[in-house]
């Protein structure tokens, strides 16, 4: 069979728009049906419906301090010069924080302001006012109040609020199931003694981590050798049990790169190759109504293609807009040269010099995974630009939380700081 060399150089944004548009036409991005789970297991899940409080919090008038509950009007006149004695259990009741307010009482005097003459008498030197040190019903949450809206990613605080409001079950969207198929006869499971020519399979775990971060549920399949029939069987198996399939490697035009031909046989190839560097030989296709992405084998290319194409699919599948990447402005430490025609994603470290951030380009090889692991952000060179000059201010899309960069020394590469 003659080798088919892909020649497309379409912008990745155009390819993504067509990909998402086709999925919308197929109602794939309409959102998954709801499932109900325990609130205690709902961290990071996306709500499928608004959540309302079942009860108020607190649902009874409660003591806000350790002390004695009193009737405020009975304490008027108490002072340092004329302390007032109150009979315990009749005029004053000892309470702890959170205790129900005894019926007929309307204030709490904190324990530090109470002296006990004996086991039956409390002495106060300051009057109370109605409502003092009392949490009224619904002070925090009112029954029927909206706690979280639909399409909301649940935080630890949300879970605490729902439980405090008597909500124990919540309707959420199922996590999109993402099958990850590592392929290649040269791949072997990670081990400390690979033979020459063997490549340790690490992309599967990296991609699974990204999928998890975006709210998906990854499943990394066993390594599939470069055998067309075996790969076809594995893809059909993955499609039966997942919402999205990532085929890692085999997306280029080598003699054993079968992904494009396989997707075309079983479904439709929308894109084979985009004008990016790295990540050019990506494949975007639809098989059995589900998205299949052929991800390049080099780890940096694989990560970039997952970010550009799998990430938005996973978010939209959950009914969410993909969040915008945090960004900062920085000055380039040295010139970036980039050939015309391809949008290039350049990894940089960030260092602080006085009141400014300096971006230092790192290794640009698609196979240098540690350059990505040690990078703080990405600088994007447009397709029709030849790069940026040293000293030019650029936008850096952060790979780490902004706070970590602004509060202290950024993550450094090994030759500076590990």
How far is the N terminus from the C terminus? Answer: 49 Å
Report the portion of residues in β strands. Answer: 25-35%
Q: Strand order of the main beta sheet, please?
A: 17-14-18-22-21-19
Q: Tell me the radius of gyration.
A: 31 Å
Overall, the morphology is elongated
Strands, total number: 29
- What is the structural class? alpha+beta
Catalytic activity: adenylyl-molybdopterin + molybdate = Mo-molybdopterin + AMP + H(+)
Cofactor: Mg(2+)
Protein name: Molybdopterin molybdenumtransferase
Organism: Neomoorella stamsii
Layout of strands and helices, then pairs:
Layout: H1 12-25, E1 35-38, E2 46-47, E3 51-52, E4 62-63, E5 67-70, E6 84-87, E7 92-95, E8 107-110, E9 114-118, E10 121-124, E11 134-135, E12 146-148, H2 156-164, E13 169-173, E14 177-182, E15 187-188, E16 199-200, H3 203-213, E17 217-220, H4 228-240, E18 244-248, H5 259-266, E19 268-272, E20 276-277, E21 283-287, E22 290-295, H6 299-317, E23 327-332, E24 336-337, E25 343-353, E26 356-361, H7 369-373, E27 377-381, E28 387-388, E29 393-398, H8 402-407
Parallel strand pairs: 14-17, 14-18, 15-16, 18-22, 20-25, 23-26
Antiparallel strand pairs: 1-13, 2-13, 3-12, 4-11, 5-7, 5-8, 6-10, 9-10, 19-21, 21-22, 23-29, 24-28, 25-26, 25-27, 27-29
């Amino acid at each position: 069979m003659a080798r088919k060399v892909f020649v497309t150089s379409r912008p990745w944004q155009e390819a993504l728009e067509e990909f998402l548009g086709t999925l919308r036409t197929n109602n794939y991005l309409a959102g998954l049906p709801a499932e109900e789970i325990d609130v205690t297991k709902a961290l990071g899940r996306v709500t499928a419906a608004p959540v309302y409080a079942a009860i108020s919090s607190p649902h009874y008038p409660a003591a806000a301090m350790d002390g004695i509950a009193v009737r405020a009007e009975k304490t008027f006149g108490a002072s340092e010069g004329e302390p007032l004695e109150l009979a315990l259990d009749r005029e004053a009741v000892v309470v702890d924080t959170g205790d129900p307010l005894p019926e007929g009482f309307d204030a709490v005097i904190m324990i530090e302001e109470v002296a006990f003459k004996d086991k039956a008498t409390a002495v106060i030197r300051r009057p109370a006012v109605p409502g003092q040190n009392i949490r009224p019903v619904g002070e925090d949450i009112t029954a029927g109040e909206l706690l979280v809206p639909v399409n909301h990613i649940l935080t630890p605080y949300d879970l605490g609020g729902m439980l405090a409001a008597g909500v124990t079950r919540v309707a959420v969207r199922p996590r999109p199931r993402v099958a990850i198929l590592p392929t290649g006869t040269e791949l072997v499971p990670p081990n400390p003694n690979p033979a020459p020519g063997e490549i340790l399979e690490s992309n599967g775990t990296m991609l699974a981590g990204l999928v998890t971060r975006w709210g998906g549920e990854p499943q990394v399949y066993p390594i599939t050798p470069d055998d067309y029939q075996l790969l076809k069987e594995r893809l059909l198996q993955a499609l039966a049990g997942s919402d999205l399939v990532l085929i890692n490697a085999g997306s280029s035009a080598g003699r054993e790169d079968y992904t494009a031909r396989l997707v075309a046989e079983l479904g439709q190839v929308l894109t084979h190759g985009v004008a990016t560097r790295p990540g050019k030989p990506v494949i975007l296709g639809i098989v059995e109504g589900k998205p299949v992405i052929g991800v390049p084998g080099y780890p940096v290319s694989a990560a970039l293609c997952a970010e550009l194409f799998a990430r938005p699919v996973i978010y939209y599948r959950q009914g969410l807009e993909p969040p915008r990447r945090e960004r900062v402005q920085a000055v380039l430490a040295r010139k970036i040269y980039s050939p015309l025609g391809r949008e290039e994603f350049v990894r940089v470290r960030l260092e602080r010099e006085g009141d400014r951030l300096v971006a230092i380009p790192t290794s640009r090889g698609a196979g240098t995974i540690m350059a990505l692991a040690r990078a703080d952000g990405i600088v994007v060179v447009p397709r029709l630009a030849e790069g940026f000059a040293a000293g030019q201010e650029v936008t850096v899309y952060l790979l780490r939380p902004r706070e970590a960069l602004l509060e202290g020394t950024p993550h450094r590469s090994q030759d500076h700081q590990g």
